[in-house]
Amino acid sequence: MKKTLSVIMLTLLPGLALAAGEHGGHQGHDMASMNQGTHGVGQPGKAADVSRTIEVVMGDDMRFSPAHIEVKAGETVRFFVKNAGKLEHELVIGNAEALLEHAEMMRQMPDMHHAEPNMISLQGGQMGGLVWQFDQAGTVDFACLLPGHMEAGMKGGITVM
């Protein structure tokens, strides 16, 4: 029964993510720097190419579980992301430099919200999906860029083999 429910949820997630749309809109915010932060870390994947699903849980303890993930170069992965906390959290994929830069922008503009293919933002108790293709070997980072979250330890890494 639990497996059947998981399959149903994963099937419905892309539609739910599209229905959710943007989470607030960035009045005039230029996302070019965040988009450059995905250079070398992959690209949005196609659902039809997903080879496996990885569950990531975000919590109010300011941690991701798991905090480290391994994938293969060329692999397309669906991240099934759950916010087990009560606070809003997000998972943003990028390189460390771009994530730090964008986290600083969010500290300066705390009401800033965005919707990009390399991220998912969830209110407490929500779940959603993100499909990403890792195109080359190396290290990819992810973090919650809401003010104070990354600084409190809400970050992780992906080793692309």
Q: State the assembly state of the protein chains.
A: single chain
Mean pLDDT: 82
Which stretches of 5+ consecutive residues score pLDDT under 50?
7-37
Describe the largest sheet: 5 strands, mixed
The secondary-structure element order is HHEEEEEEHEEEE
Supply the number of helical segments.
3
Shape category: globular
What does this structure look like?
With 161 residues, this protein is an alpha+beta fold. It has helices at residues 2-20, 32-36, 96-108; strands at residues 43-44, 52-59, 63-65, 68-71, 76-83, 89-94, 119-122, 127-133, 138-143, 155-160. The strands form two sheets. The protein has a five-stranded mixed sheet. It has a five-stranded mixed sheet with strand order 4-10-9-6-7, with helices on one face. A hairpin with a 3-residue loop joins strand 2 and strand 3 (63-65). The longest helix is centred in the first third of the chain and has 19 residues, at 2-20. It is globular and about 35 Å long.
Topology:
Elements: H1 2-20, H2 32-36, E1 43-44, E2 52-59, E3 63-65, E4 68-71, E5 76-83, E6 89-94, H3 96-108, E7 119-122, E8 127-133, E9 138-143, E10 155-160
Parallel strand pairs: 2-5, 4-10
Antiparallel strand pairs: 1-8, 2-3, 5-8, 6-7, 6-9, 9-10
Give a concise summary.
By secondary structure, the protein is α+β, with helices and mostly antiparallel strands. It contains three helices and ten strands, in the order ααββββββαββββ.
Characteristics of this structure?
alpha+beta, 3 helices
